[in-house]
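User: Hi! I'm working on a homework problem where we have to compare a predicted structure to a textbook description. Could you give me the structure for the chain below?
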Amino acid sequence: MEPYLRHMDPVYRAKAQLLNETIQDIGMGRYQWYLCVVAGFGWFADSVWPLLSGLILTPVLFEFDFKAPYLSLAANVGLLVGTIFWSFGCDIWGRKWLFNLTLLITGVFGLAAGGSPDFLTLASLLAVVGVGVGGNMPVDSAVFLDLVPGSHQYLLTVMAVWWSLGQLVASLNHMNDTTNALLSDRLAPYRKLNIYLLFCLGGLTLALWALRFFVFTLLESPRYLFGVGNDHGAVEVIQHLAKANGATTDLTMERLREAAKPYQTGTVVDDDLEVPQPQKRKLLSESSDLTIIGLASTLYNNFLPYLSCSPPDSTVVVPNSATAPSTSLIA
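Assistant: Happy to help. Predicted structure tokens:
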């Protein structure tokens, strides 16, 4: 048995095992394929908005005349707050409403950022966008894994396609908007570039939220319902899932009670809590790798667009459409 399973409530573990078997029996159906699409919107937003702070950095520097790192700092502080808040929140309040709320916050405040009259307003709005973006992948990943059969959970990796699509859309929009801004008004191109890009991507994010909220009906996570003691609600969710897929299920409250009955003795056997040394080294290595990847991702999103617009022999940054092809090819 895996070490993290040894210390799990045996009653919950028995119910979760029965739940996994039931979802596997229902199979990968229409509902889960739709979920692949709407959950992918979270990956899309998580790709677009961190990159955006780098794409607009150059024109914002010209427009507001501030120290460049502050814009990235505001966006990343928002990401940090959002990641922590929503990760705990989805286990406290459930996944259903947070699944829609994170994308709504991202779209509304991203759209509002396009009308920012000064740097403080822009940085504050992008920080709130970061709070919304920070919750997309934690919540969406949990929702996806909770409702997809184990045989198809590899699709979580395939969802990275949405990430690349987000990079491509943001870069191509930047290239088009830069050209339009510079050609339409040579006296004030920088302000136009910010408005075009923020309004376009903010509106697109709101459109994706509307598809989630009005077109797709999300079921609450049955694992969350088990965790808060709402077994009846979890059974209803599985029955709705089966119906949406055109399948049937024999999961009932009686089967849940039978599965948990052998463990309802009031005694929990606790194995050795000490983590084996090889596993400690593995966890440390994985944590270090993820930390380095996180640092590299932030540097890439912020400095590649900036450097692409910087002539090698000058400290003057001139906005042009060279950034977008570079980022588009990488995406």
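For your comparison, note the following. Residues 268-273, 313-322 have pLDDT under 50 and may be disordered. The two ends are 40 Å apart (CA to CA). Good luck with the assignment!
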